[in-house]
Amino acid sequence: MKRYEQQEFDLVAVGRALLGDPAWAAKIREGRVSEIQAFTPEALATLH
């Protein structure tokens, strides 16, 4: 919590979005928001 309070993290909330859709950043940049896949707990199973 101390590191968070010192604002050492820039993109904390993006981590879960990227787990749900690895192309999240490109889709945001390109305005393809409707194509974004939501995070699900099953997404964690795809990590190796």
Written account of the structure:
35% of the residues lie in helices and 0% in strands. By secondary structure, the chain is mainly α. The radius of gyration is 13 Å and the shape is flat. The termini are far apart.
Output the keywords.
about 50 residues, mainly alpha
Short description:
This protein is mainly α and about 50 residues long. About 35% of the residues lie in helices and about 0% in strands.
Furnish the topology, listing elements before pairings.
Blueprint (H helix, E strand, L loop, with lengths): L1 H4 L8 H7 L3 H6 L19
State mean pLDDT (0 to 100 scale): 85
Find the structural class using helix and strand composition: mainly alpha
Number of strands: 0
- Give the low-pLDDT segments: none
